[in-house]
């Protein structure tokens, strides 16, 4: 389990990896409150992103965490909430 906070820079890196070449999607600048749809990421790309986050951070995100996160800020917060829960539960 990771003890590192999940940051927007981590999310940008994973989004780029999930998109391959990026297909012209710019993740430069402050993207925290821009809808994923506007950024060019559909539900399939976000599912791939969620899978990569789960594997890298050794967590299991609630399905709604990904489907309800409309912006990078919401997804970063959901991941950090899950990391906090995972860290507080020594049984997992």
TrEMBL record:
Gene3D superfamilies: ACP-like
Bilayer-crossing regions: none
The Carrier domain, residue ranges: 5-83
Pfam family, one: PP-binding
Protein name stated in the entry: Act minimal PKS acyl carrier protein
